[in-house]
Amino acid sequence: QVQLVESGGGLVQAGDSLRLSCVASGRTFSSSAVGWFRQTPGKEREFVAGINWSGSVTNYADSVKGRFTISRDDAKNTVYLRMNSLEPEDTAVYYCAARAFFGTYVGTREYDYNRWGQGTQVTVSS
């Protein structure tokens, strides 16, 4: 089974950048699609970005297109989320999620994934 650990969150100012990392353990990670989600108190978890097993397909929420970039390094069992031009509205707990799947589909719903990390807090001050 794949276990996921996020890191890289923190407190930054509007306009700054952060890079989140999702490190996985388990033999199936290289065959897994991975997604980043975020959640603020009182709101549902929302999709941010996703990448398919080979890295050939990515998908982004409209709110982060052009600012966030998802990538993967299977040699390091890691998926990254580079976040540029951060805004206070990006403040949330960020989660990575994975599901073993060969294909070009990148899920945008929570039920598309069956392994989740514990989350990392990102706070953007204005």
Question: Could you walk me through the main structural features you see in this protein, from its secondary elements to its overall organization?
Answer:
This protein starts with a strand and ends with a strand. It has strands at residues 3-7, 10-13, 18-25, 32-39, 46-51, 58-60, 68-73, 78-83, 92-100, 115-116, 120-125. With 126 residues, the protein is mainly β. The mean pLDDT is 95. Strands 2, 4, 5, 6, 9, 10 and 11 form a 7-stranded mixed sheet that branches. Helix content is 0%, strand content 50%.
- Which class do the helix and strand fractions yield? mainly beta
Q: Topology as H/E string?
A: EEEEEEEEEEE
Please summarize the sheet with the most strands. 7 strands, mixed
Please tell me what the overall shape is: globular
Count of extended strands: 11
Percent of sequence in beta strands:
over 45%
Radius of gyration: 13 Å
Tell me the span between the first and last alpha carbons: 40 Å
Could you tell me the mean pLDDT?
A: 95
Residues in helix, %: under 10%
Which stretches are low in confidence, meaning pLDDT under 50 for 5 or more residues running? none
Q: Helix count?
A: 0
Task: Provide a short characterization of the protein structure.
By secondary structure, the protein is mainly beta. The chain contains no helices and 11 strands. Strands 2, 4, 5, 6, 9, 10 and 11 form a 7-stranded mixed β-sheet that branches. Strands 1-3-8-7 form a 4-stranded antiparallel β-sheet, with no helix packed on it.
